[in-house]
Amino acid sequence: MHHPIALVTGAGRGIGAATAELLAAQGDFVIVNYVKDDKSANDVVKKIQAKGGNAVAIQADVSIEAQVMSLFQHIDALPGQLKKLVNNAGILFAQSPVVELTADRINQVLSTNVTSYFLCCKEAIKRMSTNFGGSGGAIVNVSSAASRLGAPNEYVDYAASKGAIDTLTKGLSLEVAAQNIRVNGVRPGLIYTDIHRDGGEPDRVDRLASSLPMQRGGQPIEVAQAITWLLSDNASYITGSHLELAGGR
Ligand code: NAD
């Protein structure tokens, strides 16, 4: 009997951590991937284990192919089989108009936010197509409301990376549908996480909350609930879709 394994990239904090904790509570063996700050990834693992769940923290920069390969080799050695993937790792740089963006920044955003999703999807699909007797698996790509809004004068590079993710989700979902692998996306709006500090505006969610139809920002757990639902058999006929998680925005 093989246990279902779920990989969540960038799961040391924020939406990834909340998703890892919820998947573990629902019975998956969870891989808490992190790139730096192993303390917070280990804290997520400890929290999961304290509640009787199973998890392991594995370091890998998912924008680098060799590290993705070793991450999946590590997973192959575990007593279980990969059933779920959440591509969640992402970066956001300080607000800037497009004319001031450097090639270095653009390339970093694209490799972290887009290349990593391609690489992890590729390795996951190779395994999901045969795991559990060919019964398939499920992938959720974390996009952003920015993919449709464009984020002018703020983060057009980030928004464009999320637009690429949306197209990856659509195209890949069609490529692998016959293998019973479902690929969906979520588009969070303004969620309370540290990414806004990295984006140079720690209080962004509070500043904009009253402009949202629901008059408030979202919590990581509210995104995690949608992701875990899309990954579950309760969403068994859904593929190539995007859920808007933006309080009506
Ligand atoms: P976060 O910054 O807390 O989480 C992102 C995580 O990704 C961090 O733990 C970071 O270390 C990790 N990461 C970055 N580069 C990595 C790499 N190369 N390899 C492995 N891990 C890496 O922010 P969050 O808000 O929880 O973001 C999670 C996802 O949600 C991101 O894809 C983000 O774009 C998306 N999102 C967030 C919001 C929001 O308002 N917070 C809105 C829309 C979309």
TrEMBL record:
Cited Gene3D superfamilies: NAD(P)-binding Rossmann-like Domain (3.40.50.720)
SUPFAM superfamilies referenced in this protein's UniProt entry, alphabetically: NAD(P)-binding Rossmann-fold domains
Coiled coil, from the record: none
Presence of the UniProt keyword Transferase in the record: no
Alphabetized UniProt keyword annotations: Oxidoreductase
PROSITE patterns: ADH_SHORT
Domain of life: Bacteria
GO MF, one annotated term: oxidoreductase activity
Protein family membership: Belongs to the short-chain dehydrogenases/reductases (SDR) family.
Protein name, per record: NAD(P)-dependent oxidoreductase
